[in-house]
Design goal:
Elements lengths: L2 H11 L4 H13 L11 H13 L12
Helix pairs in contact: 1-2, 1-3
């Protein structure tokens, strides 16, 4: 599975922070020399991961009376 897809899937399923998930995946990928250079930078995948993560939570109303 592509690295970005793994990050999206984990961010949607787990309650860990996005950075913690990314760090775990980077650590696992760096253990294998053939995949260490192919991992995307955090700032490139951060917005995608956060958008999938935010779909799990309800939006708060803008005002208390809503």
């Amino acid at each position: 599975m592509e690295k970005k897809a793994v990050l999206k899937k984990r961010s949607a399923e787990e309650t860990k922070s996005i950075l913690a998930i990314y760090d775990e995946e980077v650590s696992a990928a760096s253990a294998v020399p053939s995949t260490s250079g192919h991992f995307p930078l955090f700032k490139r995948v951060k917005s995608t991961m956060y958008s999938h993560w935010s779909k799990r939570y309800l939006k708060l109303p803008e005002h208390r009376r809503d």
